[in-house]
Amino acid sequence: MRREEYIKIQLQSSEWTRQNPNSMALVQDSIQEFCKYVPLNYYILEIGCGDGYSLDLLKAKGYRKLIGCDINLTKLKTASSFGHIVVVQDAHSLGFRSEVFDAVYCTAYIGTYV
Prior knowledge:
Blueprint: H1 3-19, H2 21-37, E1 44-47, H3 53-60, E2 66-70, H4 73-81, E3 86-88, E4 103-105
Parallel strand pairs: 1-2, 1-4, 2-3
Helix pairs in contact: 1-2
């Protein structure tokens, strides 16, 4: 897949997630499971944070040490507008030092895009 195609999919996916109750329920379920194992005082990195929906849910659960990263600037601007700390990072080549974070949250949607 070309990078331009990937960016186009990324631009569309968060809006679709927020409008699709089944997708939102899957994200909520994954956050619920994550919270069972990760203490509230951990530093957490979300890889592929998009517009910050999962960061919203983590913050609502009581997590305060959150950083999101994504390659999509449009989505990061949205996440930032909701008060999240976000950085531009490619998941294939993260620029963080070792042992900065206590936990990583990352999900992926696999689907067909036409």
